[in-house]
Amino acid sequence: MSASSLFIALNLVWGGYELLLSRRRRAGDGGAHDQGTLKYLWRVLSAAVAVAVMLAYSGLAHWPLGWAGPLQWAGCALIGSGLALRVWAIQVLARWFTVDVTIQPDHQLVRRGPYRWLRHPSYTGALLAFYGLALGMGNALSVMAIVVPVTWVFLYRIRIEEAALQRAFPVAYPAYAKQSRRLLPLVW
After folding, report:
1. Any domain includes 186
2. Which of 9, 22, 34, 178 could crosslink 101 through cysteines, CB 3.0-4.6 Å?
3. Which UniProt keywords apply (predicted)?
4. Distance, CA of 108 to CA of 112 (rounded, Å)
5. How many CA atoms lie within 13 A of 182 on its CB side?
6. What is the rounded CA–CA span in Å between residue 4 and residue 10?
7. Residue 187 domain-assigned?
8. How far apart are the first and last CA of the chain?
9. Among 59-63, 115-119, 134-138, which is the least confidently predicted range?
10. Alpha-carbon distance 188 to 84, whole Å?
11. pLDDT score of 28 more than 70
12. What is the arithmetic mean of pLDDT over 75-99?
């Protein structure tokens, strides 16, 4: 299988998974703590990917000769590992996972699986996948069109989510935050 074929297949699987999540995992309270971040997230992600695709087909800033194949393979590795981490994180959260920022009546603070090390492993996985998408497009401008706004919108959403968790778990969440990182193990 070529890097291009794998790249397309991984993106189709990832896109299908995200569409299923968006339809099945809505909060019962309408995302009372979400503050509109879900809509904002989807708008930024859609715009970033649309711009990146246009740039990829523009003929501008393509990777130097010989770089496209290896970078597309690297992109596939990032998409695959990011999707695997995201699926694992969502499976560990189980019924407490929603696409909206919400706190359910019987909500529990999960500290197992990837949550032992990261407070937002699902977002780490999504970011890895988006960075892989950017690399695989074969265009330096596409990388910037995805990496900057996508990273920014996830950091914004993390801020809202952490505030909701802090309110819901005023003692447990700060203790957990001291023992784990937001997105990158041992770093941040």
Report:
1. no
2. 34
3. Membrane, Methyltransferase, Transferase, Transmembrane, Transmembrane helix
4. 12
5. 13
6. 10
7. no
8. 36
9. 59-63
10. 21
11. no
12. 93
